[in-house]
Amino acid sequence: MPIQYFEETRLFCLTTATTAYLFQISPNEQPLHLYWGAKLPRIEDYPLAPPDRQHSSFNATLHQNMSEYLCRNSIAEYEPALRVTFADGTRDIRLKYLSHRIEGESLSVKLADIYYTLELTLEYRVIPECDMLARRVTVYNAGQAPFTLEQVLSASLPLALDRGEYRLTHLAGAWACETLLERCAITPGRKVLEGRLNYSGHAANPFFALDLVDSAGQGAGENIGEVYFGALQWSGNWKIVIEQERAAGKRTRVAGGINDFEFSWQLGASESFETPWLVLGYSDAGFGKMSRNLHRYVSEQLLPPQFAHELRPVLYNSWEAVFFEVNEAAQISLAEKAAKLGAEVFVVDDGWFGERHSDHAALGDWQPNPVKFPNGLKPLIAKVNELGMDFGLWVEPEMVNPDSDLYRAHPEWAYHYPNREPITGRNQLMLNLCREDVQLWMLGWLDALLSEHNIRYVKWDYNRAISEMGWVEGAQSEIPVRHVHALYRIVAQLRAKHPQVLFEACSGGGGRADMGMLAHFDHVWTSDNTDPLDRLLIQQGYSLVYPPKTMYCWVTSTDWNRGNYPIRYRFHSSFMGALGIGTDLNSMSEQDLAEAAALVAQYKQLRPIIQQGNFYRLTPLGEEEVLAYQYQREGEGVILAFGQRYHFWKFLNRLRLYGLETEALYQLEGDLMEGEPHLLSGKALMRRGLVPKLERALNSALITLHKI
Ligand code: DGJ
């Protein structure tokens, strides 16, 4: 039973395969958080609420700070998850437990204000097989007088007391360096991770991990130690707040959800507001187990079902080869070469529509350019199909260039303030997706495009952060939520009508890598930075949270670091996820094309293991000199190892493998160091390990594992 309620103690106990999460309704009808961590043998083993106390008149009481969902009342020592202003100006929320409902793996607990008409439902979804649970809330106005929501987070909770110190691991970056690993100690004060530019963002990713640091200063490792983690299923403004108070015995609280930045929401009579889910997990076996649980959750619970269990195709994308200079003849010439390489989808990127010759014009004019494609896209699509590939197309539906027919006809469709010149970014403005006419227009042209053409792949881009959230006739403070809801709705409608189409989420690379997008899109374009060395760190961060199969990795000839990388190294770096090719195929020699074709063929053979296997980091997180990964699917494994900055004095540590059968024998093939055995038992591989052949900088090794 994943959810149990004990009437006598008014205790809720939520359990997954190895974890438990408990809270209790106190005698004064408050839900108090009690425990989150390893599952214990007996219900009596878990702590109950201690008597309430108060450190001083400068502090809230212990019970207030133990709240299962902290609302704005009393002394706001910690981030309140819920802040409202009632019609009479009152900002104080006093809730009491009303009722609860358990339905299989879902629990809802209803609370109501003692005077005003606000009702709050705490919702829980237990995901036993992923060892995780998800939380969100719904606020309901049961009366006539409207009130204003000023902050409504998905969840807030205290972490266990007296359990040592916490270290925060999170992902941060910028354009072309997304999802880089960051770590810091949690000390008294607040740490806020957030996105407030109308997308989840390049700068920070809506994810956190807090591992326990022991008295010797040792935190969790790849396979040992305790880690609490969470990720928000939301693609708009978000925040995750981690804060610690010294007075309360260094109690640490975490809260996360939609950012309150320039946000408020009028809740009228009988209206409700539902937050996105915050998924939460606890690992008692380090960051490796955390990542595998998150990957399983995305793969099995979150991804749109059509392609959730399908292999991602090898794609060719012409962006880095030709940028805006797309036309029928040049694309056909690239398509012929891409087909020979083994590409399965041919994607035409930016530049195919309107007067789009640079990034200065035409966003909004979604008709093929009549000079570049005199007979429309159909002849190119037919050729691509004839070559045995599916056809894909780039779009950026949420944007408009001032220099476009659309903007000339509908300047009011872009977010703007009445007495201000609109601020462009990449020469474009953002369409006001909160408007119904904009939504209908967008759905209309996309639906027509997909209905009239044999398109099997859509790359949905989003190339600027918002500047002004201006909406003259509408509720401006609701934009951050309404925009994202409209985006999700439109994509869901398109998917329902065109179930054969794969959707890629892109925002100038990986600016929209989040669980909200992965509930609607099949995968993510990880970064515009396609340098194979830089990519290793970006991909290390991405794969910490999201499964490798959702991470597209292109092989290109662009060397952001002028690295002069061997072709093999470029491919091995891109083997880490779903493989794409973005090289200018016209500039490759016959010899290089043949090597590339052989590598594509090898990837296709290994793809079920890479895309559907379990993922193990063989080198510690944060390590930069040598990075190694194992993908294991039953008896078949792939090891990828990269020497990045390999010092003269450095000896390569043996890499210990994971997830093997101890007694079984495994045949090893590929880049093993001279003298390494090619046949070893699972136990030997997991204990003694192996040494890949990595002799100099920018060298990579690929080893396969086959159970015999
Ligand atoms: C940003 C994307 O990340 C690139 O891959 C490419 O599609 C360009 N936009 C096109 O403008």
From TrEMBL:
<dbReference type="InterPro" id="IPR002252">
    <property type="entry name" value="Glyco_hydro_36"/>
</dbReference>
<feature type="binding site">
    <location>
        <begin position="349"/>
        <end position="350"/>
    </location>
    <ligand>
        <name>substrate</name>
    </ligand>
</feature>
<dbReference type="InterPro" id="IPR017853">
    <property type="entry name" value="GH"/>
</dbReference>
<dbReference type="InterPro" id="IPR050985">
    <property type="entry name" value="Alpha-glycosidase_related"/>
</dbReference>
<feature type="active site" description="Proton donor">
    <location>
        <position position="528"/>
    </location>
</feature>
<dbReference type="InterPro" id="IPR031705">
    <property type="entry name" value="Glyco_hydro_36_C"/>
</dbReference>
<feature type="binding site">
    <location>
        <position position="175"/>
    </location>
    <ligand>
        <name>substrate</name>
    </ligand>
</feature>
<feature type="binding site">
    <location>
        <position position="426"/>
    </location>
    <ligand>
        <name>substrate</name>
    </ligand>
</feature>
<dbReference type="InterPro" id="IPR013785">
    <property type="entry name" value="Aldolase_TIM"/>
</dbReference>
<feature type="binding site">
    <location>
        <position position="528"/>
    </location>
    <ligand>
        <name>substrate</name>
    </ligand>
</feature>
<dbReference type="Pfam" id="PF16874">
    <property type="entry name" value="Glyco_hydro_36C"/>
</dbReference>
<comment type="similarity">
    <text>Belongs to the glycosyl hydrolase.</text>
</comment>
<dbReference type="InterPro" id="IPR013780">
    <property type="entry name" value="Glyco_hydro_b"/>
</dbReference>
<keyword id="KW-0378">Hydrolase</keyword>
<dbReference type="Pfam" id="PF16875">
    <property type="entry name" value="Glyco_hydro_36N"/>
</dbReference>
<feature type="domain" description="Glycosyl hydrolase family 36 C-terminal">
    <location>
        <begin position="631"/>
        <end position="705"/>
    </location>
</feature>
<keyword id="KW-0326">Glycosidase</keyword>
<dbReference type="InterPro" id="IPR038417">
    <property type="entry name" value="Alpga-gal_N_sf"/>
</dbReference>
<dbReference type="GO" id="GO:0016052">
    <property type="term" value="P:carbohydrate catabolic process"/>
</dbReference>
<protein>
    <recommendedName>
        <fullName>Alpha-galactosidase</fullName>
        <ecNumber>3.2.1.22</ecNumber>
    </recommendedName>
</protein>
<dbReference type="InterPro" id="IPR031704">
    <property type="entry name" value="Glyco_hydro_36_N"/>
</dbReference>
<dbReference type="GO" id="GO:0004557">
    <property type="term" value="F:alpha-galactosidase activity"/>
</dbReference>
<dbReference type="Pfam" id="PF02065">
    <property type="entry name" value="Melibiase"/>
</dbReference>
<feature type="domain" description="Glycosyl hydrolase family 36 N-terminal">
    <location>
        <begin position="30"/>
        <end position="267"/>
    </location>
</feature>
<feature type="active site" description="Nucleophile">
    <location>
        <position position="461"/>
    </location>
</feature>
<feature type="binding site">
    <location>
        <position position="506"/>
    </location>
    <ligand>
        <name>substrate</name>
    </ligand>
</feature>
<feature type="binding site">
    <location>
        <begin position="459"/>
        <end position="463"/>
    </location>
    <ligand>
        <name>substrate</name>
    </ligand>
</feature>
